[in-house]
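Quick illustration for those who missed Monday's session on complexes.
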Amino acid sequence: MKNLNLLLLLFLLLPNLIFGQTEGERPNIILIFVDDLGYTDVGFNRDANFIEEYGIIPTPEIDALASGGVVAKNAHVAHPFCGPSRAALMTGVYPHRICAQYNLPNDLDSDFGVSADETFFSKVLQDNNYNTAAIGKWHLGVGNEFIPNNRGFDYFFGMIGGGHEYFESIYEPTWIANGGNTTNEYRVPLLRNTDYVAPSEFENDEYLTDILTEETVNYINENGASPDPFFIYLAYNAPHTPLQAPAADIAQFKADNPNFESLVANSPDILSANIPNNWNGTPEEYRASLVEDRIIYATMVSIMDRGIGQVKDAVDANGITDNTLIIFMSDNGGKLRQAGAVNYPLTAGKGSTDEGGHRVPMLFNWPNTLPAGANYDHLVSSLDLYPSFLALADAAVPTGKLLEGKTIMNNLITNQDARSEESIYVMRPFFGFHNGAVMNGNYKISKKGNNPNASAWKLYDIINDPGEQTNIRGTLPNGEQIVNDILEEAVTWVSDFQDVDPCWYDHNNPHPHEALWNNGSLPRYEALFGLPLGLNEFVDNPFRIFPNPTNGHFTLSFENYISELEIDVLSQTGRLIKKINGNNTSSQDINISELPAGFYIVKIMGDNKIAIEKIIKL
Ligand code: CA
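Prediction with calcium ion bound:
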């Protein structure tokens, strides 16, 4: 009871601690959002169980921020790829809802971008007198209305697309050879606001990560004394491919970590790697190349770590340490093997709905406001940053703006779950179905592949089993109930935007996933959640399906005539098997006598309405 009172007292006092600040005390915020970093490629996420052969990359500067702040061990992004993850971060909603569930194409002539109707949190901060800078990778649109300077950033320096070469000596010749006309976003000069930066600005082929660090340090020095707080979005493209690092730094890494190479030669990831069909050498040579990839990647992480130390030093030197919140996280999970990352003990990597795809390293550092050396094991979503930043800025949520995250700063102090009963989601489209994961409390349900049945969802305890090794759906006494409860909430959630088509695809038409969305021949989310079976928009003109199970014919009968009736018969996995059409009819024969026994999905369309039903052929 005493503890309860203490907690109550703490709750009463807390709002003063963070939200009761006066205008002048609003914190500076530095969000360091890195690219494709492995979950255990930072020291603060490795424990005694980490297998040395995966390769230990020292990250002393990042670890110092972690030990001086709160580590979120169970932090997730809203999508396991770069672009959609960033769209969610900036808008505070899942990317599927705003048709941004694919990476933007690598084409600087394209006019795609995250809808200008969606207000980025940076715009809200800017409107509330924050000085705002985006430094690094953008990947949220290249058209004029989509660029950082029109999304709430006073200052932009970096690359507008999804990645970049790390050395001018690599991108500059291509740029010149093409007469400045290349549309390859990796091979154009860097931008300062809307202008290309003159190559002469960087001496001796300076390394991109170092350039981004310098820009950030300069911005802190220029704005540290301002009466207005600043927000810096530092989006290193490291350690995303291409794997490139200065030769001297690679040599230094090897010298500093003399056992790294010999240990990594026995990495479980590398030993289990499949040899690509187009590999010309021996398997041993291939594995040696993966070891070298891991070393270059490790060097890239080390240089980034050094840069983060310089950013922290600049904060300290400006005397703003206690008024600066630094957040560090990755935009998605590490990409394994040829891309160099390690997520162990998490399974899989970038792009996956397994933990390795979307559970990311994350820390919060704010001396004398957040506790030091603390862990927050409850779920954190990248979607939480939007409302949390607005709260720190004493800024109102824009009218009508939907936000799907939680305000979490106080929760980081009290170590109380910010979302108790609510889920967070990850969905990844494939050729005709989605892989999906739903996290709720300690639990995660996960379904991969094209089995549409709810029974295919697996249940994991991701606190005690982050590697998702044991499906506890059948062994946990209330396992079945947990899965069903989570699914029920998920169906409600996805129903809200199930008709939203992607606004773009990551590469040229026809995209292999198009059938999933546009032509109606494949289910959208229904194969994942079993959702629209029972979906029926024919409320004003009810129908019934009368089976004649012995001969494989079904009669679809409407109360009133339908002018143009279209029926798709789909397999359970959403494959279109046959189409049946009728005109000015209230009754239609569905003949599946030639098909094998089993379940089929019938999609009934007419008069701009749709219904989806399941039929069983005996
Ligand atoms: Ca990424």
